[in-house]
Amino acid sequence: EKGGYPHYMLKEIMEQPRVLYETYTGLMSSRELEKAAEILASADHIFVTGAGTSYHAGLVFAYFMARIARRPVITFISSEYLAYRSLDHSNSALVAISQSGETIDTLQAVRSFKSSGGRVVAVSNVVGSTIPRESDTTVYTRAGPEIGVAATKTFLTQVLALTSIALALAVHTGSLTKAEYTEAMRELRNASHAASSGIDRSIRLVELLASSLRSKNNIYVLGRGLGVPLAYEAALKIKEVSYIHAEAYPAGESKHGPIALVEEEFPVIFVGVPPEDELLEKLQSNVMEMKARGASTIVIGTSSYRELEGVDFYIDVGNYSEILAPYAVVPPFQLLAYKLAVMLNRDPDKPRNLAKTVTVE
Ligand code: F6R
Fold this sequence. Notes:
Its EC number is 2.6.1.16. The protein is an alpha/beta fold. It contains 12 helices and 10 strands. Helix 2 runs antiparallel to helix 9, helix 3 packs across helix 7 and helix 4 packs parallel to helix 7.
């Protein structure tokens, strides 16, 4: 049932091109996006929540909502909903992201929001699960069942659904013309190809990278812009399946504290994404400040990042626009986490202390 793969995690990583395509066609042939856009368009304030990987997808959503739909979004981790519980939500909308649709923290956030008058758009992979049932409408990912405890294919399908919601809202409110919307949706159809490219271009290199990282105790993962939520997700994946401590933060934060830990051979992975004309030069100085302390510098990014100097190891995922970059950049990190786990004799499908669905607070 693992389709010939030794672990579900690997099978599910490799399935991404197909399930991205299925999610895309599912979105195009339903009215889910329109319904979500209607709810968001009529709200004065938009919130997004989730736990773990789903929260990271929420951060990608907030990024594209600002960039494409020109709407600021308030992001919070679902177990932190208490901060907003006393607000009047009658003119607000909440986007609640949960692969399983059963995570208790996210469900509590949904209930709290509804009880103060808010409307809820769920994003879920499980039809008929609790969070979709209690929400006003649901946008489904069509990733199929995910057996590995670490979320992989569900993350990128969430990103696809959420990016599509941002685009649908943008055309609904006039931030995008109908033609621009059609063009962007046509581009998103290539999410599947971007994921294949990310996998194909990294599968061998990740093996080398994992053998040089397997003996490390700490790894930093740094990004800017869209690269920040992708870095958070990369670090979560590495730590949960390989048990190597990985920490992600916006690259600009280095000199505000974390660089104090950096010494000879400390591995720092940079996530390189568009818009390169705004980010490349800034990332270059972050690479240099790490290099100056003897760090091992690694870049996983689009082809434009080849120009960076002072990089010890580089995985070029191909050149992709901003809306497509996540699908190419994320699989190498998932594969890296997987390889590290296997090399260290850890079961990537069943990390210790973790459950697939967290139904207790
Ligand atoms: C990480 C992971 C968890 C889940 C989180 C939320 O790989 O799987 O962080 O993302 O428990 O689960 P859902 O999306 O089912 O609410």
